Amino acid sequence: MALLSALLGSSIFAFISFVGVAGPAVVLSSSDASAVLTPLAILQAVFAGLCFLVFGASRLPNKLAGNVIYFLIGCVELVSGYFGIKALFVPLAVLSRVWVWLSLVAPALVAFLVISVVLAGIMIGLAPGFAALTPSADRLASFAKPGNRRHVLITGGGTGLGKALAIKFAAMGAGDITIMSRSLANLTEAKAEITKAMVRPTEQRCHVVPCDVTNYTALDAAVTGLFDGTKDLAAPHLVVTSAGMSHPGYFLQTDLRVYHNEMELNFFGTVNTCRVLLPRMIGRPVSEVDATLGRGKLCLVSSALGLLGSMGYSMYCPTKYAVRGLAESLHHELLAQKIDVCCFYPSNMDTESFKVENQTKPIEAKIIDESAATITPAQGADAALRGLRAGHFHFTTEFELDFLRVAVNGMMPSPAPIVEMFWYPAVHLAGWVMRWWFDRVVLVEHKKKMSGKGSRLPAVDQTAPLLGASGQAPHRD
C-alpha cells in the first residue's frame, strides 16, 4: 500500500507540478498578484499539496528529514491554496518546487556526474596498465623493419606538421618517404632534414614532388611522373593529407576569395589527393595486402576547429568540418576495399604559417586561442603517430580536445566506447561552460569597441598575399 501510494502520489505530483509551475512564476512576475492568483492557480496548489501529503506520508517510515519537510510543506500549501492566502501560497509554491528539484533531481544529477568523473578518472589512470596487459597490434610496425619498402606519402610535407611527420617516419625506418608541396625550396630544405634523420640511409629514400594539390590535372601528372620515374616504388601504404591554410578574420571584412581559396586547398586538395592515389592503393595485389594495414591507410588532417566553430574562423572551420565528413564517409565506403581511413585533429601549432595567421586574427579569436595549448610540429607528429599506431579513427593532440572529439563522435568508431560513455555528462557540462565563455569574450570585446576602448581590424581587403597575380580564385579541375 505504501509503495502504491508513493507511486501514485509521485506520478500525480510530477504531472501537476509540470503543468502548474507557470502559476507561481506568473504570480511572482506580476505587479498585481491578486489579478493573477486565479482559481486555477489555487486548484493547482491544492493538488500539489495533496501530492506532497501522499508522497510524504508514504515515505515517513524511512524517518528521513526530507520526507517530514515534504509533509509539512504539503500541509501548509494545501491550506494556503484552499483559502487563497497569497502571502503563504506564493513563497511556498516556489519553495516546494525548489525543494523537489534539490531533493530529487539535483542529487541524481550530481551523483551521476560524480560517478562518471570518478570512473573516467579511474579508467584514464589505469589505461597504461590495461594497455600493457592487453597490447594492441602496432599498425606501423612494418615501417620499422629493416629492408622494408613501406611507402608513406605526405602532402604539405615541406613545412610544419607534414615535415615533422616525414622526419619521424625517417627515424622510424620507413623505406620510401614522399613529400609534396607547392614550394620547391621548402621541399629541398625538408629533404635534407629527412635524410639526416634516416636510421638506414642506404635503404631509405626520400622523394620530393613539387605540385599544387588544388589542381587535379597537375597533381595526377606529378604522381604519375613519380611512379614512372622511380624504380620499385610501391603504391602508398599511408597517405597523410597535411596541406592546408588559414587566414582568419571578421566575416564581413574578409574578401570572399579567401573562402574559395581555403576550401580549394583544405578540402578539395584533400579530395584530389585521395582521388589520385586511391586507385593505386586499391590496385595493390592481394599477395601484398598487409595484415595490419590492409591495402593502405588514409589519414585526413582536419583541425581542432573541425570539432567546433569559433569566432573569426568562418572561412576555415567549414573546410575542416568538410574534411571530417569526408573521412567519416570514406571510412564506410572503403571498408570492403581494405583501405582504412582516419581523421586527425591537431591543436594550434607553432609554425611560420601560424605566425602569419595571427596577423589577421580578430582580437576575440586571439583571446580564445590563448586558452588553448600551442604545440610544436614535432609534438603534433608524435600525437598523430600514437593514433596511427593504435588504429584509432578519431584522434587529437591533447586530452582537452578528446572531450570535443567525444562530443562529436556520433556513430563512428571510438577508441574506448565504455569509458567515453561515462564522459558524456562531463563533456556536455564542459561544453556549456566553454560556449558561455566564448560568447562572453565576444560580447565584452564588442562593448569595448562600442565605447572606443577596444581594437578593431580595419575594414579593408587583407587577402592580397594569398591570391595569384590574376586576383582570382583558383580553377577547379
TrEMBL record:
Entry's transmembrane regions: 39-57, 69-94, 100-133
Classification via SUPFAM superfamilies: NAD(P)-binding Rossmann-fold domains
Membrane in keyword set: yes
SMART domains membership: PKS_KR
Span of domain Ketoreductase: 150-342
Keywords linked to the UniProt accession: Membrane, Transmembrane, Transmembrane helix
Record Gene3D superfamilies: NAD(P)-binding Rossmann-like Domain
A Pfam family annotated for this UniProt entry: adh_short
Name of this chain's protein: 3-ketodihydrosphingosine reductase
Keyword flag Membrane: yes
